[in-house]
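FORM 7B: Structural annotation worksheet

SECTION A. Query
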Amino acid sequence: MSKIFISFLGTNNYLPCSYEYKTKRIKNIRFVQEATIRMNCMDWSKKDRVVIFTTEKAFRQNWKNNGHRDYKTEKVLEQDGLETCLKKINGQFSYQQIFITDGRNEKEIWDIFIRVFDSI
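SECTION B. Predicted structure
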């Protein structure tokens, strides 16, 4: 049976952090998704996959590169998005991004549920 990692990507400007789990420690990683994958999914095979759900805004700001601006200068912050970070992992698993709605009402919440369910 294949394995699947499912996560939702937000819109905030993720800051580099250190992550620790049991004996594993990773430093200076922006996305918790990347850290979790690096600590738990490196022995996965080609039949396993990573699925990242994003809204349109999260796609622009954090899936793709350079999605945020400096608050004071309004200059684009040159930062890798999660897509680029996943490419750099070079794992055996496949990965995909799936759009979801913002979840602002019952219909949109059900749409999210169906998207997640269908991805499994």
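SECTION C. Observations
The longest helix spans residues 106-119. The chain has one domain: 4-12+44-119.

SECTION D. Sign-off
Analyst initials: ____
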